[in-house]
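stuck on this one:
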Amino acid sequence: MNTPDNTSKTTPAPVEKSDAQWREELTPEEYRVLRQAGTERPYTGEYWDTHTEGVYQCRACGSELFTSREKFDSHCGWPSFWAPLAEGTVRYIHDRTMGMDRVEVRCATCDSHLGHVFDGEGYGTPTDQRFCINSVSLRLVNPEEK
């Protein structure tokens, strides 16, 4: 039996909502990216060049996904991270859309599209990975606001 004492605080319960609920709760742009796997235009999102300290949450469900410690300047036009906050906070899907072979990154809690992860691009990060994430998929929370 799960009680508050033995339930993990880092693994929220899965979020299941109808399409109508998502449309009601998200802006049209958030819905397009988070629920329809869209992509915002490069250099237009609010976090692509921010250096503010904090935790990046999923904009759809509030799960903590990345931190500013893993964020780096890749100059690609989207926020880039070299790793998620913790194992199991994101899930991966092989994506062959648009004539490309890549790995989609989704929120493990609500299954919202976040972006893609790329390996071996030579950025010199500890993981040699670049999690290229849409700003509209995230909400930055400063440590004082938590």
User: Anything to note?
Assistant: The chain has a mean pLDDT of 88. Strands lie at 55-58, 64-67, 71-72, 80-81, 90-95, 102-107, 113-119, 129-133, 138-141. The first strand starts at residue 55 and ends at 58.
